[in-house]
Write the structure tokens for this entry.
Amino acid sequence: MNWLIEIVLYLLLLTTAFLALSVKDLLAAAAAATAFTLTMALLFISMGAIDVGFTEAVVGAGIVGVYFIAAVSQTSRRTRD
Amino acid sequence: MTSPSQSVIIIVAGRALAPLIQLFGIYVIIHGHYSPGGGFQGGALLAAGVILLRMTEGRCAAQSEISTEAAIPVASIGALIFAGTGLVTLAFGGHYMDYGVVPVPGIEEPMVRYYGILLVEFGIGLAVMTALVAIFDDMLDDPSPENGDVDAGKPAEDLKRP
Amino acid sequence: MLLVFAGLLIHATLHLPARGDPDAPMHRERNRAGGLVAGDYFVRNAYRDAATPNMVTVVLADYRSVDTLGEVIVVFTAGVSCFLILRRRRRYD
């Protein structure tokens, strides 16, 4: 049962990583990076490292995502490449 | 994002969620001895509450909790609490951060370590919270037409929402 | 290039011990040179030393607190450098 959840999480990890790199809209890329971090935190928790997962969820999904969004709101929203 | 959001839903949701997030942050710091968590996570949660308020209601919100100017000094106070605890143990003849050597009357050595850990976690939480809030404030610190003449950190009365 | 590097990483990962393996070198009492393993000491003595059930907290704030001090200094330095670089100068007019 546990490995089933982990396989789903790994697939989600790959999907969000690919999305964050390929999307042109920077706000969507920031959201995808946040989703990547949250999936990573869930993976840590499923491996038993609850403290690390908690830190990852709070800092990665809570704070760094907001910083990305703030930076996007201060600069341009589209990438050129 | 420097201006307050126009939607009532966003403002009400932010106001409802921020106290819960901060309460959970304080719980995580204080209860870190028994459950996952600690100063870093709790401080980040407290900062998340303040940042949520500042995102939804404009960057002049929640200034009474941590004002923009006081953030960096309070962060240094938190870091000094942490480093000072280590220095106190150094003064009593132990290693740096070896809390057990501090003689507290009536408390045994493991409990001294317990309270030392609590003090250190509190310092970490304070430093992390205010440093993260300061980074957020500085990132949004641009002269926009509405608050162009307002000095950084001073909440202008006409910008405060009722 | 990318595939070669990924293959190298996967090849290295295959030789790691399984997750939660009690015979892994990390979980033994003594390492191959005969010295005591630090993790075993932490697991055995965390509650006795600090009366705290959560041994992660004891490791972070007591045994390895200098490491945590460095962590806090990193965050604090980030805050100070943002303060110095990004904050708009006061107008004197």
In short: The mean pLDDT of chain A is 88. Chain A touches chain C at residues 47-48, 51 (CB under 8 Å). The two ends of chain A are 42 Å apart (CA to CA). Residues 50-74 of chain A form the longest helix (25 residues).
